[in-house]
Amino acid sequence: MHNTLGVAVIGTGRMGADHVRRIDEVTSGARVAAVVDIDADRAKRIADRIEGCTAYTDPAAAMAAPAVDAVLIASPGPAHEAALLAAFERDLPVLCEKPLTPDAASTLRVLEAEQRLGHRRVQVGFMRRYDAEYLRLKSLLAGGELGRPLMVHNRHRNASTPPGFTNAMLINDSVVHEMDTTRWLLDQEITAVTVLRPTPSGNAPEGLDDPQFVIFETDGGALVDTEINVNCRFGYQVQAEVVCERGTARIGEAHSLLTNTEGRWGGSIAPDFVERFEEAYDREVQSWVNATRRGEVVGPSAWDGYAAAAVCEAGVRAQTEGRRVPVEMIERPALYR
Ligand SMILES: NC(=O)C1=CN([C@@H]2O[C@H](COP(=O)(O)OP(=O)(O)OC[C@H]3O[C@@H](n4cnc5c(N)ncnc54)[C@H](O)[C@@H]3O)[C@@H](O)[C@H]2O)C=CC1
Ligand SMILES: O=C1[C@@H](O)[C@H](O)[C@@H](O)[C@H](O)[C@H]1O
Description:
The protein is of the alpha/beta class and about 325 residues long. Helix content is about 35%, strand content about 25%.
């Protein structure tokens, strides 16, 4: 491993390009040694802006380059499994954007491959675990002052969806964040999912039932609801209120500047996740780089990726079958205990 960690960023779209900028300008102890995209022009345009960075179209070729010590995967979910397995072939540390893979069977294959290596290599990009508000909420709940958590009310709103966004993606790409925050905040597993749908909003693109109302049951007896509303038009909002025996705690209301002016009171709403979670992504990537340079793996593991995928699978079935679906999960392997 080089003194400055040489990172190959795979996928240079919205998230990948932002992570390239982050590693190049914000993160310490790392540099972008390679970028990979099936769109060769896009990869070259990005590589040309960074000294010592080479563009590739094949992830495995980039991973074979001597300058590459670690891999950040930001290609679309269906491409993650192949990239993860290629990284394992070279025993390279990986930060993989969520979802780890888009279904439980492929996530299980990744989990098995990591176990064959005999040590953890993967951190999953559940960046809300690095958000200052979520961290304060986690520490309040862990302190026990509010008593046992009984319910969580989440709101997850996007201004609009990209073309081709499907009902399954609403669960696998969007609500997957609430699956992870629920498991992490409550330290409980999700045992069943129910999905209810109002009459779709007039903003919903053809074929997408938006918004939806997703309910989780947990093994600790808590109920968690999520309003997922991804074409709300007015901006990007992520809010959570935890109702406990001795009080409630709420985040995501005032993540902005509040102003009083000309008979009006209010603040602004972030346009998208890149802005709302900028500091969380910065902390996530810095934490990954620091741990990798120490030879450690920290943060959300492949097991967390698998657990979320198992809940996603139940969620998509609950959505299509219109009933409560229990979550089916394997026992947690020793590597992840
Ligand atoms: N943590 C978060 O808040 C967010 C995470 N994501 C995740 O980041 C990942 C990427 O999402 P976006 O940047 O929105 O997608 P995007 O569609 O903007 O970019 C994907 C890029 O990957 C390239 N690509 C496709 N297949 C490839 C392959 N096999 N090898 C290399 N490059 C390939 C595409 O040409 C494109 O440039 C997804 O896993 C997504 O779920 C996306 C948005 C927010
Ligand atoms: O991960 C993300 C996107 O993939 C997803 O499409 C959005 O709904 C989420 O808010 C965002 O955080």
